[in-house]
Amino acid sequence: MNLSVLLRKRFHAALTELTDQPDEYAGMIRVAADAKFGDYQSNACMPLGKKTGQSPRDVATKLVESLKIEDLCQTPEVAGPGFINLKLRDEFLSNTIADMLGDDRVGVGVTPNPEKIVIDYSSPNVAKPMHVGHIRSTVIGNALAETFRFVGHHVITDNHLGDWGTQFGIIIYGYKHFGDPDVVAANPVPELASLYRLTNQLIEYQKAKASLPKLSEKLAEAESNAKEEAAAAEAVEKDEKASNKEKKKARKSAESAQRRIESVQSDIASTQAKIADVDNDPKLSALSAEHEDVPAAVLRETAKLHEGDAENRELWEKFLPHCKDEINRIYDRLGVTFDHTLGESFYHDRLPGVVEMLDGLGLTTKSDGAVCVFLDGFDSPMIIQKRDGAYLYATTDLATLQYRHEVFECDRILYVVDSRQSEHFEKFFAMAGPLGMDNIELVHVSFGTVLGKDGRPMKTRSGSLIGLESLLDDAVARAKDVVCNPERLANMSPPMGEDEQNQIAEVVGMGAIKYADLSHHRTSDYRFDVDKMVALEGNTATYMQYSYARTQSILRRVAEEQNIDDIEDWVIKNVTADEIQLREPAERALAIALIRFEEAIEGAIGAYTPNQLCDYLFDTAKSYSTFNDACRVLGNTDPVILKTRLALVVVAGRVIKQGLRLLGIGVCDRM
RNA sequence: GCGCCCGUAGCUCAGCUGGAUAGAGCAUCGCACUUCUAAUGCGACGGUCGCAGGUUCGAAUCCUGCCGGGCGUGCCA
């Protein structure tokens, strides 16, 4: 049931008599700004009155007269400058709740225009440990996939793994020089991970050492610049002729110069920390002395792999499955799956063909030895082949697009990727036309950066990123502290065993992390604050999960009391629409919230913004909490009150559970 | 330099294609547990929506300029 759509249709019909653009004005239906105005409102009459030169209130009165809406709403009211306020009829609400009760999709319709949609998300570099940065693409992509699928689209999820890049050069180099084949064979996943870390640490160390002189130069430069700015600011300050504005400006630029110093100093500190980590470890510094230029050597190993070197190719084939096991462990835990995992390596053989094709179309230009495509409206070209002959991610993306076009025959592709790559996608999308693929709608579903609690990128002291797995563990551990709070545990009957506690902690911990991500608008940066997301109060997944648990608890109690086996089934079969009577304000408010489920889903899909669904679920759970507090279910002798409330509890539970499922978040029957 | 994004309550953030006194959570301060789980509910406090113009009957929302912050910017992805 989509109320906005339904109301829009009725307005559309009435508007045809008043204007030749009924679509535009019918669309101006909104949820009422304030509950005292009613449930919905139309804002159409002000602009319409303006356009036709009539008074908006007169237009509104006319519109109301020709509006056929009495089966849905009470008599519409014209208010203020020309708003039309609508209040839904209680019988209509009751009927709709009854329909939702008997529908396993809780009233959410299936789209009449199903599309084939490829969703490209997560796409980490295997072999490299996953960090917080990967969580957004994975969680947002998964939620979109679930939601699009639920409304009836044919969704194909594809994890475009980075399985062909430098990180394999790192592992191969590490294996050849520091690895013990027997140890790796016995325990490949952790061994390969530790070889990666070791080799990468040497690379970072050597790069850090090389970069230190430049950083010192930068610091000196920043310092002298700051000195000049400070002196200039001081001069302006003393200058009687200078305006306040000029003084302020000078102060600002002096402060800004000071900040640049701090920024360089912090770079130097983390660089020095990286160096110290190795220098303070005799084993590591010996290794570094032994292996002179690891960064260059690693690039050579990567190049050999790409050129088809037999040994490296064999190692790659041997290691790849283990690297996949490593990331799959995280996916299992997050409950994320993919229909396809076609990584970069899958497209490797197709890359020369892409360049040839673009050559054939006359789109390429050689510039400084690199093969480039210059596009209108962009300063820099898209480089598809490097001077040394190697291909780039632009090339791979084009090959991937061709494949999806030919094999999947999709209508739309969503790229759930960091917003920092937006320029790349603009160029890439601009090439779809010339390549004859402009019948696919290409969307960059971009998202912002995950920051630490302090608003700065999350990094350890030496500047490396914090592992994703440890964050998950942390969230679950904290969830367990709360779930297993002895005070709460004491109230549980039957008692909650260790297994159940662990299971709930996992569901609550994962939900906390996912919800924290999804509830922010995807394009804004957000602060990853474990304390807050696992606080388990306010706008968190736990609040919804708790609401759900309470619905189930009530249903269990009623089932016990009335000796009913399957209470949900009983309610579905025994509560009729005319027995649902919304007498209490909290009942009515909850009913409306529940009915808006489909609207919320459509909002989330329309702009690829799961936070809209989060907002909706939080509102609904709040309505449920208020209802739960004001309207007791148990102990009602009046069958109408009992049945009304049971119906609301059942539908509320199902809406919350389904809504959370679309977000990739689970529920527990009690907690 | 150029391009993109952002600036809303003490803090973290919503605010859909312009619409009625700008919302939520946290924090702070009250009230409510013999009552289906108080991981709760009810209430209070709290904002020149960065600044200045413009468009409009109406602007947090659209346009321009400025200030402040972030990111990107030809051979990494």
Summarize it.
Strand 5 (116-120), helix 6 (133-150) and strand 6 (154-158) form a beta-alpha-beta unit.
Description:
The structure is a single chain. The two termini are 31 Å apart. The longest helix has 51 residues. 38% of the residues are buried. This protein has 26 helices and 13 strands. A hairpin with a 3-residue loop joins strand 3 and strand 4. The protein is globular. It is α/β, with parallel strands linked by helices and 671 residues long. Helix 5 packs across helix 26, helix 17 packs across helix 19 and helix 21 packs across helix 25. The chain folds into four domains: 86 residues, Gyrase A, domain 2; 166 residues, Rossmann fold (3-Layer(aba) Sandwich), CATH 3.40.50.620; 146 residues; 194 residues, Isoleucyl-tRNA Synthetase, Domain 1. The strands form four sheets. A four-stranded antiparallel sheet has the order 1-2-4-3, covered by helices on one side. A four-stranded parallel sheet has the order 6-5-10-11, sandwiched between helices. The structure holds one RNA strand of 77 nucleotides.
